Amino acid sequence: MNQKAGTAATIAIIAAIGSFVLTFAGNPVWGLLAAILAIVLGLVGVIISASPKVGGGLMSSFSVILGIFGVGLAILVLVGILLF
Prior knowledge:
The protein is mostly helical. The protein has one domain (about 5-84). The chain is about 80% helix and about 5% strand. Helix 1 (about 5-25) packs parallel to helix 3 (about 55-84). It is elongated.
């Protein structure tokens, strides 16, 4: 039986990486939204990976962690833009 990564886990890791790219590209609002999406889809991916046919639990957990850092980074950039 082949185990494959869930779609939610794949999209979550792409959204987590995209949040950093968007934030550093000067779009912290879009980066914040992508980070929130990464957290939500990462949690969904962790729940779905409980099935023996679907993998990606580690990838989903990693995307949640990256999403949390992405939210913090986007908020810091937004505060920096508002203050300076």
